[in-house]
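#onboarding

Welcome to the new folks! Below is a worked example of what a typical request in this channel looks like: someone posts a single protein sequence, and someone else replies with the predicted structure as tokens. Don't worry about understanding the tokens yet, we'll cover that in week two.

Example request:
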Amino acid sequence: MLDLWATEQEADLIRTGWSVSDVLFSGKSEFQTVDVVNTKAYGKMLLLDGLVMITDADEFVYHEMISHVPVCLHKSPKKVVVIGGGDGGTVRELLKYPEIEEIILCEIDELVIEASRRFFPEVSSCLFQNNPKVKVKVGDGVAFVKELKNEIDIVLIDSTDPIGPGEGLFSSQFYRDVASALKPGGVMAAQSESPWFDRESLIRIHRNIAAGFSFQQSMIAPIPTYPRGTWSWTVASQESIHSKRFDLNRFKKVESSLKYLNIGTLQGVFDIPK
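Example response:
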């Protein structure tokens, strides 16, 4: 009997593993390796270059945090750009808001989209339903954002870690370009690694975001299959960010469809531990 495990290792410090019952897919694009395995504890798992991206069991936490918080901060979200996010989960959450008129997903790796379509239909189906609101663009998100000037309400950086194809999505110049792409009152949200990660890396991420934005706020949530069990996102704007800005009526209309966020966690999302 084979004893298969998927493991993710952080330097020589930590190794995390999940028992695997089946390897469902293994491929390599020009950017990265793409694997889908079936784990005994968390169901299907998508890995890029050996790093966990989503699982059946806990993907909803990540996708709800990166999408609903910025949408409810914005006064009138109409046009949203998602950079990365080829699994479709962020787009799925955005489509719960009828006031959003256009969603553009820009994913650099078409193989991620195809693997998600095959193995995570409950997450990715929104990308393949010919919804007139959704446009899928396969290309470099860094270059795409440079083309946008004062025309987007919300930009969501649903990226991999700051290595390989995701490295450019963490630079100060990229955040300046995102700021230029946003209309007045615009909001950006980006995944910003684990709060237990290397302190200098986190300082660098926040410093680079400050190159484009006047205000930023961190938020965290538990994701069992991510390194060290907790993940962070950063929301940024040219206007002050605080819970009083949330459109609670907008959120209440979608709250029953969510698995993680509720009205209480939304209102306290920026009240993170010391």
